[in-house]
Design brief:
486 residues, 19 helices, three-stranded mixed beta sheet, mainly alpha, single chain
């Protein structure tokens, strides 16, 4: 049965006034794993940033391997969280945030504002430039100018891309492959036999840190790293946007974001269509679900967990309990680079800094992309549905350049990221994760047909995720609150 032969609409059990009701449509045949690889690669690239490269290795140098269990648990919970985000998009073609707006319209604005506020500060570009500056002997001002050029290059790269998703996927795939190659080198040349022998501490240390933070570490540092292992924050919700542009499931019915310079723009809102509820379409949906789970497991969970494990094992092998400068900041990376150069070899130290610096710069690109996607989708789908001038693509590029220009201004006037802003950003990200975990349960229980609802084990794991991120977010907020008001 074709869509034209079945004009009836799908009325979800949510307020119908927020977004138009969905028409039923056929879901396309699922693609092979090789053809769907990409969205979770971008998610992994987004994850391999400051936490995997910086925070967890630093924590490991201070307390050993006993806290790594929490990082693995966090990444594993994010796998299930991401798949519930994908469930809605596979079934409807809409992003999860558009789904939240079906529950309550202001959720779209809340998520868009949270994305912008937490990422607009150019921390990743500055960090990447600073790490590369260690290698090339750049001054602080020199690293600042590298960061400025990097931000402008990000804007130009995204603007010149005929189909933006394809460009982001290619760039971030190269990053992930380079990091993966480096991880193999680390496992062969950088991890000591003693460190391999101590791996069981990860299991025996389970539960460490739930009460007292070990080793005298700053509680905010540890709890932030635990709560946000993986992508974290609004970054997880961008999985909807990426699989939609890749053409997963019902996302094949939604126009992709294209360059206003080189692409063919389409002035349509990304309101979804519900997969038709017949045997053939449901069979295709569940085959999409299977390949999407494999893509997420291979590309995101495995790569992210491996990067946390290997970078932490490298730190444990080379600088465990050694006196390195500057708790958790980039001076620690400089000190660790010097240490691994001395212990393993100068070539290894160079690779360590290059991989870290370039990785952080490309994380900045993924950040600009996903924040702009989230905001453009919210504005076009919820607030500018009938506006033919402001297409989703035009909105996307407006916010790309807004983020680039604001970032450049922040750098040129000499601002760093003040503690109070970082506190607000981290607390907001943690709170938002708790909120949208609850919303995902509600959305995928209440607004999907009975055959597609989240249930059983996955529903139980989502409840665990709410409790896990809620607990650590409260601990993090209490810790930061003590710092601010002491």
């Amino acid at each position: 049965m074709t869509e034209s032969a079945a004009p009836k609409t799908y009325a979800a059990e949510v307020p119908s006034k927020n977004l138009p009701a969905m028409a039923y449509a056929d879901i396309p045949e699922p693609n092979s794993l090789r053809k769907v690889l990409g969205p979770s690669v971008i998610m992994a690239a987004l994850s391999i940033g400051s936490g995997e490269y910086l925070l967890w290795p630093y924590i490991t140098t201070q307390v050993g391997l006993v806290l790594l269990w929490a990082a693995i648990v966090g990444v594993s919970l994010q796998f299930f969280l991401n798949m519930e985000i994908e469930r809605w998009t596979l079934a409807t073609g809409e992003t999860a945030i558009a789904g939240f707006a079906r529950l309550w319209k202001p959720w779209g604005a809340v998520m868009a504002i949270a994305a912008f506020v937490t990422i607009v500060w150019p921390g990743w570009a500055t960090s990447g430039a600073t790490v590369l500056g260690f290698l090339f002997g750049l001054s602080t001002s020199g690293a600042t100018w590298v960061a400025v050029v990097a931000l402008l290059a990000i804007g130009v790269t995204l603007t010149a891309s005929p189909v933006v998703y394809k460009t982001v996927e290619k760039i971030e795939t190269v990053k992930v492959l380079a990091v993966f190659f480096f991880l193999i080198v680390v496992m062969v040349a950088g991890i000591s036999a003693r460190a391999w022998g101590d791996v069981p501490q990860i299991v025996t240390g389970f539960g460490t840190g739930l009460g007292t933070i070990p080793g005298g570490l700053d509680a905010a540092l540890v709890l932030g790293a635990i709560a946000f292992a993986g992508a974290g924050g609004i970054g997880n919700l961008a999985q909807s946007n990426w699989i939609r542009d890749k053409g997963f499931g019902m996302g094949a019915h939604i126009p992709r974001i294209v360059s206003p310079v080189t692409g063919q723009d389409v002035a349509l809102a990304a309101t979804g269509k519900m997969v038709r509820q017949d045997e053939a379409n449901l069979s295709r949906f569940w085959r999409w679900w299977r390949v999407a789970n494999i893509e997420q497991g291979v590309s995101f969970w495995f790569v992210t967990a491996l990067s946390i494990f290997v970078f932490s094992m490298l730190a444990y092998s080379t600088v465990f309990l050694k006196d390195l400068p500057a708790e958790g900041n980039l001076k620690f990376i400089q000190g660790m680079g010097a240490a691994v150069s001395e212990i393993v070899g100068g070539w290894f130290g160079i690779m360590f800094l290059v991989i870290g610096g370039v990785s952080l710069l490309l994380t900045a690109l993924a950040n600009v992309d996903y924040v702009s996607r989230v905001i453009a989708d919210v504005l076009k789908t919820i607030y500018l549905t009938g506006n033919k001038r402001w297409t989703e693509s035009r909105l996307y590029f407006a916010f790309v350049w807004a983020m680039v220009i604001i970032g450049v201004v922040i750098l040129l006037v000499g601002f760093s990221q003040p503690l109070a802003l970082l506190v607000v950003s981290s607390s907001t990200s943690g709170l938002v994760m708790v909120v949208y975990s609850v919303l995902l349960i509600q959305l995928n229980r209440k607004a999907l047909p009975a055959q597609l609802k989240v249930r059983g084990l996955r529903l139980g794991i989502m409840i665990v995720a709410v409790l896990f991120y809620g607990y650590f977010s409260v601990r993090l907020a209490i810790s930061y609150g003590g710092m601010l008001f002491s």
